[in-house]
Design brief:
The complex is a heterodimer.
Chain A lengths: L2 E4 L3 E3 L5 E8 L8 E6 L5 E8 L4 E4 L8 E5 L4 E6 L8 E10 L5 E6 L3 E5 L2
Parallel strand pairs in A: 2-11
Antiparallel strand pairs in A: 1-3, 3-8, 4-5, 4-9, 5-6, 7-8, 9-10, 9-11
Chain B lengths: L8 E4 L5 E6 L10 E6 L6 E4 L13 E6 L2 E6 L8 E8 L7 E3 L3 E5 L1
Parallel strand pairs in B: 1-9
Antiparallel strand pairs in B: 2-6, 3-4, 3-7, 5-6, 7-8, 7-9
Classes of the chains: A mainly beta, B mainly beta.
Chain lengths: ~120, ~110
């Protein structure tokens, strides 16, 4: 059974660093892109970036380039999203999801993690 | 401002058929497939439709997707109270916006 499980909720202060995780199981972790999606309180889904754990090829949305770092450790089937200096505006739920290639073009997100709530407050 | 455009809200009564539109451009919907996600209150999004019109296993056939040119639509027939949720369209994008773009989401209310 394919599963994508994320780390638990975090409460941080502005300026602190943070790394949240996303563990895939039940499939070949190195053969599927993993994507990260932000959902701010009461708002829609925003694409952040993707990583291919097989070779760590990473693509960022222009809105998030330089703001976060996406990485993966294929030895433990885990992807990460990290911040070096959090801001209050980073308060949101962060989802990771597995991408599967469409038989035609593009990809779709077929298995989603449960989400990680990050709260940044002084 | 989302790259794909959806109406912010839609509504219907039980048993009705409702449609939700999604408008894009030649770099996304016009050249790539469209996917739809359902987000029930307080839960993670779930894949509802992929490759324009395919349903994953377990998704009722009341849900259907279609695409024409740079626009796509999600139709829900036989509306049920449990369909009340937020619906998002998404597509691969070949421009600097990509590689993935979402619509702003449509909140469906079952009256």
């Amino acid at each position: 059974e394919v599963q994508v499980v994320q780390s638990g909720a975090e409460v941080k202060k502005p300026g602190e660093s943070l790394k949240i995780s996303c563990k895939g199981s039940g499939y070949s972790f190195t053969s599927h892109w993993i994507g990260w999606v932000r959902q701010m309180p009461g708002k829609g889904l925003e694409w952040m970036g993707i990583i291919y754990p097989g070779d760590s090829d990473t693509r960022y949305s222009p809105s998030f380039q330089g703001q976060v770092t996406i990485s993966a450790d294929k030895s433990i089937s885990t992807a990460y999203l990290q911040w070096s200096s959090l801001k209050a505006s980073d308060t949101a739920i962060y989802y990771c999801a597995r991408l599967t290639p469409d038989i035609l073009t593009g990809y779709y997100l077929d298995y989603w993690g449960q989400g990680t709530l990050v709260t940044v407050s002084s | 401002q989302s790259v794909l455009t959806q109406p912010p809200s839609a509504s219907g009564t039980p048993g009705q058929r409702v449609t939700i539109s999604c408008s894009g451009s030649s770099s996304n919907i016009g050249s790539n497939t469209v996917n739809w996600y359902q987000q029930l209150p307080g839960t993670a999004p779930k894949l509802l439709i992929y490759s324009d019109s395919k349903r994953p296993s377990g998704v009722p056939d009341r849900f259907s997707g279609s695409k024409s040119g740079t626009s796509a639509s999600l139709a829900i027939s036989g509306l049920q109270s449990e369909d009340e949720a937020d619906y998002y369209c998404a597509s691969w994008d070949d421009s600097l916006n990509g590689p993935v773009v979402f619509g702003g989401g449509t909140k469906l209310t079952v009256l």
